Amino acid sequence: MTSKNWSKRSVLACGISLLFRVGIAAEAAPAKTPAIALLDGADAAQWQAWSKPLGWQVISAEAPAGAPAPDAPPAGIDARVQALAAAVETAVKSGAVDAARVYLAGRGDSASAVFYAISRIPDRWAAGVALGGDPQAAIDSERIFTANFSNTPVLWISSGPNDEAVAKKLRSEGLNLEWRAAGATTDAALFAWLAGHTRDEFPLSVDCETISPAFARCYWIQMTKFDAGDRNDVLPSTRLSGRSRAALDLGCSYKIDDPGPGLLVLLPARYSGPLKAGDRIVALDGRPIENAGQFAETMTKMTDERPAVVMVERGKDRVRVETRILLPVHAAAVSARVQASYNPEEKEILIVSRTATEMRVTVPPAWVPGDLNWNGVSLEDLKSPGCYLLTIQKELLHAVPCP
User: Fold this and answer.
1) Could you tell me which of 109, 173, 160 has the C-alpha nearest to residue 138?
2) Residue 177: which residues within 8 A CB-CB, separation 6 or more?
3) N or C: which terminus of the chain carries fewer CB neighbours within 10 A?
4) What is the pLDDT of residues 131-159, one digit of tens each?
């Protein structure tokens, strides 16, 4: 078997026959199949062509498996992450997709979204693969927590001159990341790496951190209420610090994984500024904006607040908009973190948390009878499986069956 350099198109198509030789798809596809999950639906057709001979499915937020595409995809990346997770859940419940073998994937400018989606919803994917691009845009969101990758590794295949050093630094900061050079990785090796990872619904240990109750599920634990004043020094934050960068005073954000040209703006509800839905910012002070990555790099170099002019592409028209460049004021949101483990020998669930004042714990049948301990306090002698609601009330910890 000859080795071929990885590429976006030809190698993946060629490698399908290689996969049959190594036995990944030598047998008939089972009723429940692995699936590739995509935040960028533009890649869906290509991934379907590559994965169909293997019996794998492709799921995207824009076109969930077995369902018609919606009229318009969710605009913000958080909405798209939630939509993709919901599409995966639908496919799993239908019996078409194996819940233990769903793999998040992204290419080029969408590669950073792989890191972002895992950090926001860490317990849905068996693993992630980022082809090209880099994780910097996701890191700059200040929402990448290395704890969330504990059970969900990422394979980053790229060819940037400094990518190996970047990957080494991220691993040293706790990110569960493997880097491979694009020119030395075959497509067969890529799919074999994915197939070698499975998701456990009830892993013996979990570790998750978040700034939002909407993204607080961690396998068999879900944090449901936060109190920023309820902190401890036992669990430090695992947040990766983004680059300090300026912003435009336009009251909007932009799609961080959009390939360009320019920036596709994302407007909040009740927006009253000069922009409109669908606008694309294509130039800043007369200089073209190639894409979101190039714009982010430009803004990190800004050192002064000053007036600025942007050119906005609105349909066939171009509109000149005056604004200001604002320097960042750092006030990172307080995060909540939970570490939990089950000890089969002691038959004990140990939970340590920070900032979380309420959580739901789902106990599988194999873990009972047993004990449950939260932040050093023994709460419950578990006699039956199911959901337990843990709360802190007036500094006292309680555990009761979920209502």
Assistant:
1) 109
2) 149, 153, 154, 156, 167, 170, 171
3) C
4) 998 898 898 888 999 999 999 999 999 98
Residue 225 sits in the same domain as residue 261: no
- Same domain? For 292 and 172 the reply is no
Running DSSP on this structure, what letter comes out for residue 29? P
Entry field: residues in the chain: 403
Does residue 200 lie in a domain region?
no
Q: Which residues contact 270 (CB under 8 A, 6 or more apart)?
A: none
**Is 315 a domain residue?**
yes
Same domain? 184 vs 314: no
- The letter for the amino acid at 330 is H
Contact 114, 129 (CB under 8 A): yes
Please say whether the beta carbons of 315 and 192 come within 8 A: no
Range of the domain at 232: 205-239+332-401
Q: Tell me how far apart the alpha carbons of residues 237 and 234 are, in angstroms, rounded to a whole number.
A: 10
Condensed to tens digits (0 to 9), the pLDDT of residues 163-209 reads: 999 999 999 999 999 999 998 888 888 889 999 999 999 999 999 99
Strand partners, 386: 363
In this structure, the strands spanning 370-374 and 247-248 are unpaired
User: What is the rounded CA–CA span in Å between residue 32 and residue 100?
Assistant: 10
> What does pTM read for this prediction?
0.74
* Residue owning tokens 């006292």: 396
Does residue 4 lie within any of the structural domains?
Answer: no
- 55 and 161 share one domain: yes
3-class secondary structure, 40: coil
C-beta neighbour count of 399 within 10 angstroms: 18
